[in-house]
């Protein structure tokens, strides 16, 4: 079992070989009026190029806040986050929890959105969008409006839109939280298959430990608010990986071990919740 | 904040995101921004007056039509001292408030009726939509025939204008209540009244308040219009009467008074709505988002 607890030590500012992302002491506080919420950190994380990292932790532990900081939607209030990026490709793109699919655009127009923002010529944008619609399994629905699609299909639109810009770092914020359990398994398989094709760097936030273990190269357990790294587990299952890895006894054992760590954090956040109310 | 620091060895770049300011600094910055916003809000009209003053005294514009603000201020002081201004303001404000009250009560009632019942909507919507487009000033002579040369005719004219604004916004608000919220009431077997009281009406309120804000503005507009033609008191009357006597400064006093009245009424509605609907003011990370 490769379980280790990382200490919150400041990492050196130089780029470690092959690193894509390095967070050192990243913190985020929210101030509204007189109240102050310490949402995240100090948070330290190193992600290698091409690595699939899953963050799991209780609700409100700041996982999403971290993704938003990586995406540049939100500045940290302390610490630094370094990204080593190549020229000529989109930096990051995000799959949002509530899909973020624009209801007034067709499936094709939604998937094409990021390409249009990047000023890709119309013809090429259409071709690339169509290609991603095919890969994600939505062929035939190009002209449909999101309101006519199921939740699972809408989330596929959102994933295709994020992937179509070929981001160097794909950020996924509980992308499957709102779809049913069966659809979840299907979408995880779709994601694994699509990811295998080019193995880009992914940071995947989820509530589900099982999902994290099925998808990730590493699973990072985040503490109750303010979120810190409690445990950083290297997932021993090989690649390419199918989602039925979850039926092996090794999976069950690993799940149990990590769950013991995670449960304490969930209980801590529950306790904090009762104090606050 | 994102900044590109240096070229890493590979053909790429390092992007660093770090704190632009401590939370305390950010809070200070937010407060400072608020102050600047207020200064700008007041500064723009002040600047306008300064430019106007310079233009009028230097002779760039004809002071007969554009008397310098100092002249207007003098006229305003005279009107205040003689008590005329308050008399006019009071007359106009009463008309606007009575007109609004009539329009809001009838408009909301119609909006609810049409928003709640498919049959009522089918029966009355085409008719009301047609009447909506008729300028209310065009019917004003008819109102004068019916009510005589009384304040009632003026109040009703203002009320009719407000009625249509409130009708449309209320009806639209009721039709826009999400099916999910309606089903909550249905699943708990709420009757029509309880559904209305606990789900439909609260859900519709934010949009109705937006309608009310527009209503007070058009009520002021209509008030000036009807006072031009038929009144011997009121701000509209003051403007019109000053024009006929070629007293441009007094005219401007009236115009500014109307602008301020509209501003105050519209802001009053906004403040009331924020007070009455705390839930429609949702705080999100780093700022306020508002349904109002």
UniProtKB/TrEMBL annotation, chain A:
<dbReference type="GO" id="GO:0005524">
    <property type="term" value="F:ATP binding"/>
</dbReference>
<dbReference type="InterPro" id="IPR050166">
    <property type="entry name" value="ABC_transporter_ATP-bind"/>
</dbReference>
<dbReference type="Pfam" id="PF00005">
    <property type="entry name" value="ABC_tran"/>
</dbReference>
<dbReference type="InterPro" id="IPR003593">
    <property type="entry name" value="AAA+_ATPase"/>
</dbReference>
<dbReference type="InterPro" id="IPR017871">
    <property type="entry name" value="ABC_transporter-like_CS"/>
</dbReference>
<feature type="domain" description="ABC transporter">
    <location>
        <begin position="21"/>
        <end position="249"/>
    </location>
</feature>
<dbReference type="GO" id="GO:0016887">
    <property type="term" value="F:ATP hydrolysis activity"/>
</dbReference>
<keyword id="KW-0547">Nucleotide-binding</keyword>
<dbReference type="InterPro" id="IPR003439">
    <property type="entry name" value="ABC_transporter-like_ATP-bd"/>
</dbReference>
<keyword id="KW-0813">Transport</keyword>
<protein>
    <submittedName>
        <fullName>Nitrate ABC transporter ATP-binding protein</fullName>
    </submittedName>
</protein>
<dbReference type="InterPro" id="IPR027417">
    <property type="entry name" value="P-loop_NTPase"/>
</dbReference>
<keyword id="KW-0067">ATP-binding</keyword>
UniProtKB/TrEMBL annotation, chain B:
<comment type="similarity">
    <text>Belongs to the binding-protein-dependent transport system permease family.</text>
</comment>
<feature type="transmembrane region" description="Helical">
    <location>
        <begin position="199"/>
        <end position="226"/>
    </location>
</feature>
<feature type="transmembrane region" description="Helical">
    <location>
        <begin position="238"/>
        <end position="265"/>
    </location>
</feature>
<protein>
    <submittedName>
        <fullName>Nitrate ABC transporter permease</fullName>
    </submittedName>
</protein>
<dbReference type="InterPro" id="IPR000515">
    <property type="entry name" value="MetI-like"/>
</dbReference>
<dbReference type="Pfam" id="PF00528">
    <property type="entry name" value="BPD_transp_1"/>
</dbReference>
<keyword id="KW-0813">Transport</keyword>
<keyword id="KW-1133">Transmembrane helix</keyword>
<feature type="transmembrane region" description="Helical">
    <location>
        <begin position="156"/>
        <end position="178"/>
    </location>
</feature>
<dbReference type="InterPro" id="IPR035906">
    <property type="entry name" value="MetI-like_sf"/>
</dbReference>
<dbReference type="GO" id="GO:0055085">
    <property type="term" value="P:transmembrane transport"/>
</dbReference>
<keyword id="KW-0812">Transmembrane</keyword>
<feature type="transmembrane region" description="Helical">
    <location>
        <begin position="35"/>
        <end position="55"/>
    </location>
</feature>
<feature type="transmembrane region" description="Helical">
    <location>
        <begin position="127"/>
        <end position="150"/>
    </location>
</feature>
<feature type="transmembrane region" description="Helical">
    <location>
        <begin position="96"/>
        <end position="115"/>
    </location>
</feature>
<keyword id="KW-0472">Membrane</keyword>
<dbReference type="GO" id="GO:0005886">
    <property type="term" value="C:plasma membrane"/>
</dbReference>
<keyword id="KW-1003">Cell membrane</keyword>
<feature type="domain" description="ABC transmembrane type-1">
    <location>
        <begin position="89"/>
        <end position="273"/>
    </location>
</feature>
């Amino acid at each position: 079992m490769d379980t280790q607890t990382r200490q919150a030590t400041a990492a050196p500012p130089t780029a470690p070989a092959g690193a894509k992302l390095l967070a050192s002491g990243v913190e985020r506080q929210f101030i509204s009026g007189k109240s102050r919420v310490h949402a995240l950190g100090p948070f330290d994380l190193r992600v290698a190029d091409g690595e699939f990292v899953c963050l799991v932790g209780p609700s409100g532990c700041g996982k999403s806040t971290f993704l938003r900081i990586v995406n540049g939607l939100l500045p940290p209030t302390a610490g630094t986050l370094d990204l080593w990026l190549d020229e000529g490709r989109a930096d990051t793109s995000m799959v949002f929890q509530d899909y973020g699919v624009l209801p007034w655009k067709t499936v094709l127009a939604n998937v094409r959105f990021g390409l249009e923002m990047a000023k890709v010529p119309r013809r090429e944008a259409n071709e690339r969008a169509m290609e991603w619609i095919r890969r994600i399994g939505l062929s035939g629905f190009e002209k449909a409006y999101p309101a006519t699609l199921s939740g699972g299909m809408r989330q596929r639109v959102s994933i295709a839109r994020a992937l179509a810009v070929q981001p160097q770092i794909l950020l996924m914020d509980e992308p499957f939280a709102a779809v049913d359990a069966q659809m979840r398994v299907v979408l995880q398989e779709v994601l694994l298959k699509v990811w295998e094709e080019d193995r880009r760097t992914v940071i995947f936030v989820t509530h589900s430990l099982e999902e994290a273990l099925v998808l990730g190269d590493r699973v990072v357990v985040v503490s109750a608010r303010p979120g810190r790294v409690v445990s950083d587990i290297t997932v021993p299952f090989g690649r390419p990986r199918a989602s039925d890895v979850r039926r092996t006894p090794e999976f069950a054992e690993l799940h149990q071990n990590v769950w013991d760590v995670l449960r304490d954090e969930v209980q801590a956040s529950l306790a904090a919740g009762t104090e606050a109310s | 904040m994102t900044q590109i620091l240096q070229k890493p060895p590979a053909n790429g770049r390092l992007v660093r995101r770090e704190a632009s300011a401590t939370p305390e600094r950010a809070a200070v910055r937010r407060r400072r921004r608020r102050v600047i916003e207020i200064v700008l809000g007041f500064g723009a009209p002040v600047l306008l007056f300064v430019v106007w003053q310079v233009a009028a005294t230097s002779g760039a514009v004809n002071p007969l039509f554009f008397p310098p603000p100092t002249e207007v201020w003098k006229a305003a002081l005279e009107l205040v001292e003689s008590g005329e201004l308050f008399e006019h303001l009071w007359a106009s404000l009463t008309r606007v408030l009575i007109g609004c009250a009539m329009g809001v009560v009838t408009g909301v009632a119609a909006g609810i009726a049409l928003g709640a019942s498919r049959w009522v909507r089918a029966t009355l919507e085409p008719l009301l939509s047609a009447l909506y487009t008729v300028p209310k000033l065009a019917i004003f002579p008819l109102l004068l025939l019916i009510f005589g040369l009384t304040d009632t005719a003026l109040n009703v004219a203002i009320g009719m204008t407000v009625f249509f604004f409130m009708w449309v916004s209320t009806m639209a608000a009721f039709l826009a209540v999400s099916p999910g919220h309606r089903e909550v009431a249905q699943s708990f077997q709420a009757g029509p009244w309880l559904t209305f009281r606990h789900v439909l009406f609260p859900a519709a309120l934010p949009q109705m308040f937006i309608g009310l804000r527009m209503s007070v503005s058009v009520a002021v507009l209509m008030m000036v219009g009807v006072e031009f033609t038929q009144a011997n008191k009121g701000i509209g009357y003051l403007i019109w009467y000053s024009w006929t006597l070629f007293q441009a400064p007094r005219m401007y006093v009236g115009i500014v008074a109307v602008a301020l009245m509209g501003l105050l009424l519209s802001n009053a509605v906004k403040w009331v709505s924020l007070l009455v609907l705390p839930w429609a003011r949702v705080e999100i990370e780093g700022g306020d988002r508002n349904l109002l």
